[in-house]
Amino acid sequence: MNIVFIGAGYVGGPTITVMASKCPEIQFTCVDINQDRINAWNSKELPIYEPGLDDLVKKNRNKNLFFSTNVEEAVKNGDIIFVSVNTPTKTFGKGAGYAANLEYWEKTARMILDVSTSNKIIVEKSTLPVKTADAMARILNSDKAKYHFDILSNPEFLAEGTAINDLLHPDRVLIGSFENENGIKARQKLVELYQNWVPKEKILTTNIWSSELSKLTANAFLAQRISSINAISALCEETDANIEEVSKAIGMDTRIGNKFLKASVGFGGSCFKKDILNLAYLSRHYGLTEVADYWESVVNINEYQKERLVDRMLNNMFRTLSGKKICILGFAFKANTSDTRESPAISITKKLLEERAEISISDPKAIENAKKDLADLEGKISFTEDPYEASKGAHSLLILTEWDIYKDLDYQKIYDHMEKPAFLFDGRSIIDRQKCYDIGFNVFTIGTSSLKHFD
Ligand SMILES: NC(=O)c1ccc[n+]([C@@H]2O[C@H](COP(=O)([O-])OP(=O)(O)OC[C@H]3O[C@@H](n4cnc5c(N)ncnc54)[C@H](O)[C@@H]3O)[C@@H](O)[C@H]2O)c1
Fold first, then answer.
1. 436: annotated active-site residue
2. CATH number of 207-455
3. Residue from 359, 368, 421, 343 nearest 391 by CA
């Protein structure tokens, strides 16, 4: 059997690698139109950082795992084609800013139709608006089609930073199909593939629309928990309640549970915002205004949380940041990834530059992406991987990614070479507040009252 992934990104690359490692008798080919990306997948420096990925790629590459730009050839020979291309938010025309841009999808479907010389199973791996499979089925099984195509939905629930572990030990694998004879047969083939390493009871089969909608819903619920706790963090800062104590108290309620209850500067990543706005757009399309407004407010709180942090800096640093050096520790949207897409650090850097602050950025894995993200901005920005170098002469530290290394920095050493009074804003609540205050910092963490050496 030949399995092909179209799209060698954060989803396609790790997913095909884990599949290849678990199914040695199957040949896997990952294709992409981006030559640089494919070159990187075939080199020592993979295009993305994920713990455990390097080893798995090395073990399987050029055995039963191949990376190529020859998209059409691979598709022609494939029995199962997973489509994991990007589905960004539309930036033009109707639905701009909300709807998913499906142009890559449609192009992919038409290409599959044109090059195929055998029947195939096409799997939606990307996150898509509910009802996309309908359009896929219409294109692929049009009058022009000489072969039969079954469409399945198999959304990916991996989280960046823990992708390999999530793929090896998923909470569940979701497979949706049309509920006719062909659809159910195709679904069974995918179930058998996953059974090579996933316990049967964790493989969930549904109708195709439930599967498409479940992925958008899962992301909306996860983001909603972050916005909910962040909304309460604002109230904590006003009332001297402590968000960590509140989180613990509510998280011990088994009806609520303790995951995704950490207050922070806000969520980032390529998916949450895009998928919620897409859910809101779909709801509006079906005339469900209240539903759309409800979900959109999750994104609004996320924007508010970032603005609030910059306002807090401004208010406490004597109402001006102009000419002051702010050292940002962490640019990735979360720890253990080099991905900076929609990272809170991007919009916060922009806001700080608008205040004419001087920005020094440090990150162990994301500096190259940060440089690209900020390439068009005017203002003073420097990039230094070493946090000690980056913080020399800074007026304030600003922690935006929860990298482990930032928990154990020598804050005394950093304090000693900073301007005074020295400020520390911790957007991820990872530092020892009291210890840093005792060193001399004025300390501000999300959802807790400030520790200041002045009124
Ligand atoms: N990143 C995540 O954590 C995550 C998790 C679950 C689901 N998803 C979803 O998976 C999908 C892919 O996300 P990603 O983060 O891997 O995106 P990505 O941008 O990292 O990768 C997509 C790749 O598809 C390639 N591509 C685009 N059009 C192509 C075409 N016509 N032929 C061949 N290659 C093509 C691009 O060059 C790119 O390398 C999205 O729908 C996303 O919402 C992402």
1. no
2. 3.40.50.720
3. 359
**How long, in residues, is the chain?**
455
DSSP three-state, residue 129: coil
Residues of the chain predicted below pLDDT 50: none
Task: Looking at the CA of residue 155, tell me the nearest atom of ligand 1.
Answer: 7
Quote the strand ranges of 254-366, DSSP E.
325-329, 358-362
Question: 153 CB under 6 A from ligand 1?
Answer: no
Model pTM score: 0.95
Active-site residue (options: 23, 30, 236, 271): 271
Instruction: Name the phi and psi angles at 208, rounded to 5.
Output: -65, -30
Give the Å distance between the CA of 88 and the centre of ligand 1: 9
Say yes or no: CB of residue 115 within 6 Å of ligand 1: no
Q: Do domains 2-198 and 207-455 have the same CATH topology?
A: yes
Domain ranges across the chain: 2-198, 207-455
What pLDDT is recorded for position 330? 98
Cβ–ligand 1 distance for 212 under 6 Å, the answer no
CATH classification for the domain delimited by 2-198, as one of 2.40.50.140, 3.40.50.720, 3.30.428.10, 3.50.30.60: 3.40.50.720
- What is the distance, to the nearest Å, from the Cα of residue 182 to the centroid of all Cα atoms in its chain? 34
* β 173-177/149-153 pair status: antiparallel
Is the minimum distance from the CB of 261 to ligand 1 under 6 angstroms?
no
Whose C-alpha lies nearest to ligand 1, atom 44?
A: 11
